[in-house]
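Much of our argument rests on the idea that a fold can be written as discrete symbols. Part of our work consisted of pairing the sequence of a single chain with a tokenised description of its backbone. We regard such an encoding as a compact summary of how the chain folds. The amino acid sequence and the backbone structure tokens for this protein are reproduced below.
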Amino acid sequence: MAYIGREPSYGAFEKQSLTADSSTTTFSLNYTVGSENSLLVSVAGVVQEPGSGYSVAGGGTSIVFSTAPTTGANVFVIFLGLARDVGNFLNTGIITAQTELAERANTGDFFLVYDTSATALKKIQTSNIVKASISRTGTGDGSTATFTVTNGVAVANTIVTINGLVQRPTTDYTISGTTLTFGTAPAASDRIDVRELPA
């Protein structure tokens, strides 16, 4: 089939016919749209201007005509673009437990994320998401038993040593918020090393 202008890249556009009764101005749409410009609307063979002849309401779920179409008029809508609600998409069952990666992602893998500033799905490489380990060092003074760590880090993903001797989590130290607390203050000149591992 020949086209004037650029050939469509992806399939056909969806069409919805509406039944006019000379009084109804609001009709539910079969698909959710992002704006009036995502529709081509015809009333009795006359193409309606977006924002003037009609608008969309209900978050893009319905069309509202400025004047009720006349009974018997041929009224139809062609959907030029559909809104994508990522939250709804994830809850439809399209993404299920069968598609879950049940192991640690490789550094070359990608995640799909919804970029709210661009209102689009984007991919991001695992290596840009997984946190790197953080190393902290300090020196004991014989009285200070607290040490600052990253907020949210837990004893389960930290390795703490004093002069190279590994400390036992929850026995030799605990963590709450941004504070690591030793059971006994490290002695003066003791070398403290804390390795925060990715959770």
Remarks:
- The radius of gyration is 30 Å.
- Residues 115 and 121 are 6 Å apart (CA to CA).
- DSSP finds one helix and 16 strands in the chain.
